[in-house]
Amino acid sequence: MQLTITQPDDWHLHLRDDDALAAVVAHSAERFARAIVMPNLQPPVTTTEMAAAYRLRILSALPTNTGFDPLMTLYMTDRLSSEEVIRAKQSGIVKGIKLYPAGATTNSDAGVTDIQKLYPVLETMQSESLPLLIHAEVTDSSVDIFDRERIFIDRYLVELSRTFPELPMVFEHVTTKDAVDFVKENPGRMAATITPQHLMYNRNAMLAGGIRPHYFCLPILKRGSHQQALIEAATSGDPRFFLGTDSAPHPQHAKECGCGCAGCYTANSAIELYAEIFDQAGALNKLEGFSSFFGADFYNLPRNTNTITLEKRSWIVPESYPFGNDRVVPLMAGHELQWQLIS
Ligand code: NCD
Ligand code: ZN
Known about the structure:
The protein is of the alpha/beta class. It has helices at 18-31, 48-61, 82-91, 119-128, 148-163, 177-185, 196-200, 203-207, 224-234, 252-255, 270-280, 287-298; strands spanning 2-6, 10-13, 34-37, 69-75, 94-99, 132-134, 169-171, 190-194, 241-243, 307-316, 321-323, 326-328, 336-341. The strands form three sheets. It has an eight-stranded parallel beta sheet. It has a three-stranded antiparallel beta sheet with strand order 1-10-13. Strands 11-12 form a two-stranded antiparallel sheet. The radius of gyration is 19 Å and the shape is globular. It binds N-carbamoyl-L-aspartate (NCD) and zinc ion. The site of zinc ion has 5 residues, from loops.
């Protein structure tokens, strides 16, 4: 069986820099026409000028003859100014500003400590219609890691969306039924990305029978009832939910150690993973909207016009790929996937 769909885009991607960038970018470019590139480098991408330079590094790391278009983002800090927001919008290359609460995840130490102090800047983003991309987890160490997303909604998102009803917001990598319900009920311009790992797994995959570090990402995998809510949202045809892999490569030794870091690498088989999920849910006819239409519509960008073709023919995901001087282990390494990208 074959499936041809409009070429998809990845609305949440970590490409890293230097050797790591060179090692992974082709995986995304083989599948996706465009990607929203996350700014959590060290140091983070905080200005339009830095984003423009990073974009050129990405373009020069690409294999020749690919039309892959990296869509850049800025990393929001307490020091972001309205002037920078306007510069970002006018550049045409920056498509969003990413809010990481300080300390929420990998390389987020420079993140935001007090969202309310940034309200004047959000006002400017709203009038410029520049999307706010949100890593929605509280970082308060007294809050249980499995509750961090749900509590962020009550503490910040309710008020944010009431105060800025016209600001396009992306609730990134939703992992709970609470988040899905919040997005569905939100009267403002809010959408959400959903990763393959949160659709495919619940926390048992990471913890039952042994600790499996390659399933550890943030927000952390939740219980099965949340996974079900995510599958329903992704396969419902609701345009507020679209594809964002959050593919986040780390060297093997940084994941497989006493304190393994957060992030799943999925760029090598991203659209294949989603095809598998939609197939299992009996919703292959909903894959194209989720993968190729709704994100572009949300970001006010044209839909892609070329296509990709997938075939249902099983293959084994490689154990690892080269990653600079190291290796990166993909999600489902050594396991069988049913769908293959053939062109
Ligand atoms: C991401 C990374 O490694 O950059 N990790 C992750 O677990 N998702 C950071 C992020 O997006 O939270
Ligand atoms: Zn991410």
